Amino acid sequence: MDEKLDNGPKIKGVRRGQHSAIVIGSVQVFVGPENMAPYPVEAWAAEEDTYLVLSADPEVQAIEENPEQIMAEVSATHPAEPGSVIVKNGYPLRLLAIIHDLNQEPSWKEEWVASALDGILQEMENREIRSLALPLLGTLHGSLERKRFLTLLREALERRQPIHLSRLWLVVPSGTTSDILAMLEGELQKW
After folding, report:
1. What is the dihedral of CA 147, 6, 133, 126, to 10 degrees?
2. Distance of CA 107 to CAs 55, 102, 131, 182, Å?
3. How deeply is 127 buried, as exposed, middle or buried, from its count of CB atoms within 10 A (0-12, 13-18, 19+)?
4. First-to-last C-alpha distance (Å) of the chain
5. Which of 79, 97, 115, 138 could form a disulfide with 83 if both were Cys (CB 3.0 to 4.6 A apart)?
6. What pLDDT was estimated at residue 21?
7. Using an 8 Å Cβ cutoff, are 183 and 22 in contact?
8. Could you give the C-alpha distances from 73 to 53, 120, 145, in angstroms and in order?
9. CA–CA separation, 160 and 171 (whole Å)
10. Cβ contacts of residue 53 below 8 Å, gap of 6+?
11. Whose CA is closest to 153, among 173, 141, 139, 137?
12. DSSP 8-state class, residue 50
C-alpha cells in the first residue's frame, strides 16, 4: 500500500478580530487594505524601480547646489539591480523591491518579482523580523495578474520556509480582500 506523506504546511483559516487570515505552517497570512492594518508591522515592502523614481518625493525642491555638481552626481548614479531588495532603516523597516526598469517596456519581469520575494524573505530571516506588510508586487505599477503574484509568493515560501516571520499582511486594494483571500486559499491547495 502506497502512502503519501504530507510534509507541506498545514493550512487553516483563522479570525483575529475583524480580520481573516490563513495559517501556512507557522505564518499567519492576513489579507486586507492599507487602511486596515491587522497589527503593527516591523517591515513594509514596496514596489520600486532601478533608479528609485517610484518612491521619490513628488514635490519639487529648490536647488541650492551648483548645477554642474548636480550633473556630476546624476552621471555617477548607478541603477539598482532588477530583482534585488534595498533596505531602508527605520521603523518600520522599508524594503524596496526593485522590480521595474523604467527604460524597458514592459517595465517589470516576472523573474524580478520572484527574485525580490526571495530577497524580502531572506531579509526577514537575516534581521529576525516577525511581521511584514507586503503589497502584491507587480500589480501596482505593472500588469502582473494577482493570481500569478500569489503563485510566486507560494513558490517563494516553499523555497525559503521562514523561521522568524510569523505574520504576513498582504496589502490589497480596497474591496478586493475576499476575492484575493479566495485566490490565496486556492493557490495554497497546490502546495
Report:
1. -130
2. 15, 5, 29, 29
3. middle
4. 23
5. 115
6. 82
7. no
8. 16, 29, 37
9. 21
10. 102
11. 137
12. T
The larger pLDDT score, comparing residue 87 to residue 25, is at 87
Structural domains in the chain, sorted by start? 27-54+76-188 (3.40.220.10)
Q: Are 74 and 67 in contact (CB under 8 A)?
A: no
Q: Output the nine-digit C-alpha cell for 113.
A: 518579482
What is this structure's pTM? Answer: 0.83
* pLDDT tens, residue by residue, 161-172: 899 999 999 999
| Residue 139 dihedral angles phi and psi, to the nearest 5° | -100, -15
Residue 4 has pLDDT above 60, yes or no: no
CA distance 170 to 81: 24
Please report which residue ranges of the chain form alpha helices under DSSP H.
67-76, 110-126, 146-160, 177-188
- Angstrom distances, CA of residue 186 to CA of 21, 96, 138, 162: 14, 28, 20, 21
Q: What is the pLDDT of residue 28?
A: 92
Find out whether 38 and 31 touch, Cβ atoms under 8 Å.
Answer: no
CB atoms within 10 A of CB 5: 5
Query: Can you state the percent helix, strand and coil of the chain, rounding each to 5?
Result: 30, 25, 45
Question: ∠ at Cα 152 (149, 158), nearest 5°?
Answer: 145
H or E element at residue 171: strand 167-171
Q: Which contiguous run of DSSP H or E holds residue 99?
A: strand 93-100
